[in-house]
């Protein structure tokens, strides 16, 4: 019998202090993990790997992890924090011709391989030349614009709202209720609706956040972990007020 019940209970997007109160202190890797574990396919793969430990390495590789960590676990779970594999260097050396078949490098989708004659790497200059060849090969196959992809500027300032909107919609919270709770307006808003949302306007306002969340959950979470500087997260004022204990209109 199949069920749509989540592998791990999902936050509802509304209960700030229960689910998101430490979000402003999350590391880049935790932000990446928060989006990854919400991926339904990752949850299914985690179930499979828990039942069949021989699949754990494959599942970890598929989702960009150094070692397997179940979607069931929180960021700092029993297996420790997740370690994201940004790049994987795999070295195989053929010691003789007879071993060639055993040393065929099997590439996964999205990977590139480069064969180098070790006996020709006789100097630092030769090593630099080999590395330069690899860089050129990558650049030929990865267009410059693809490095940014689908607007991977990420708009990190509103990551809190992005995550909460995803959770709210997954929990079947209406666009209107989600907008009122996550990005509430105030009495000084110049919009003629005098501080409240209507259903259609709420949907239009939150749809972009939901699309961003879908991208991050589907795979762009890795770009959060890749960021070399701490993500700049500046959530809606109502969120800050709520975690500091000051009630704000629309804040649960």
Notes on the structure:
The chain is an all-alpha fold. The chain has a domain at 97-147. Helices cover 42% and strands 0% of the residues. It contains nine helices and no strands. It has helices at residues 16-19, 28-36, 40-51, 56-62, 124-141, 159-170, 175-182, 199-226, 237-243. α2 packs across α8. The longest helix has 28 residues, at 199-226. The protein is elongated and about 70 Å long. The two termini are 36 Å apart. The relative contact order is 0.17. The model is unreliable at 146-151 and 248-252 (pLDDT under 50).
Give the helix level as a range of percent: 40-55%
Low-pLDDT residue spans: 146-151, 248-252
**Arithmetic mean of pLDDT:** 80
How many beta-strand segments? 0
Largest sheet: none
Tally of helical segments:
9
* Strand content range: under 5%
What class would the helix/strand composition place it in? mainly alpha
Shape type: elongated
The N- and C-terminal alpha carbons lie at a distance of 36 Å
Rg of Cα set: 23 Å
Order of helices and strands: HHHHHHHHH
Please describe the structure with a list of short key phrases separated by commas or semicolons.
mainly alpha; 9 helices; about 250 residues
Tell me the layout of helices and strands.
Blueprint: H1 16-19, H2 28-36, H3 40-51, H4 56-62, H5 124-141, H6 159-170, H7 175-182, H8 199-226, H9 237-243
Helix pairs in contact: 2-8, 6-7, 6-8, 7-8
